[in-house]
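Give me the 3D structure for Biopolymer transport protein ExbB.
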Amino acid sequence: MFQTLKSGGPLMFPIIVCGIIATFIIIERCIYFFNINKRDQKLMSDLDGFLAAGNFEACAVACAQADTPLSQVVKKAMDCRRYEEHDLREAVEAEMDFVIPSLEHLLTPLGTIANIATLLGLLGTVTGNIKAFGVLGSGGSMGDPALLAGAIAEALVTTVAGLCVSIPSVIFHNYFVSRVNRRVVEMEARVTSVLLRLTGRVR
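Predicted structure for Biopolymer transport protein ExbB (203 residues):
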C-alpha cells in the first residue's frame, strides 16, 4: 500500500492531507448533528411542561443545559417575551440568522476539499502523462520501461487517490447541507410554537 501511494509522486501528500481533513470534518459533523438532535428533543419535551406552567426560569435553565442553536433562539424569545409581538419576532429572526452559521460550520472547507482533491488528481494525471511522453521522446521507440511504468503509475494513482477523497467529500457535503436546511425548517417550526405560547395565542 505504501509503495503504491509513493508511486503517486509528490502530489499524493496534499491529497492525503485533504483526505485526513475531510475525514475529521465528516466525523465531527456527524457527532455534532447527532448530539444536537438528541438535546433538542429533550429540550422541547421539557419546554412543553415549563411553558404550560408559566415557569420561564426553568425554561431558561433548560435552554442553557441544551446549548444548541435552537436553545439559543428559544432563550432569546424568553428574554424578549415582554416585547411587542412585532419586536419579539424581529429579535427571534435576528437570533436565527446569528445561530445558523454554527450549523454550517466546516461545510465550506469540506466542499472546497471535494473540488481541490479532484483537481489535484487531475494535475497528477497531467504531470504523469508529461513524464511518460518525456520518457518516450528521449529513449527511442519505447524508452526506459521502468521510467515509463513509473510515470504511468503516477498518473493513475493520483487520479484514483483524488477521486477517493473527492467522492465521499461531495456526498457528505451535500448530506450535511440537506441536514442544515432540514434543521432550519424544524427550528423555525419549533420556535414558532414557542412564540405562539408566549404571545398567548396557544395555551
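The mean pLDDT is 86. Let me know if you want a second pass.
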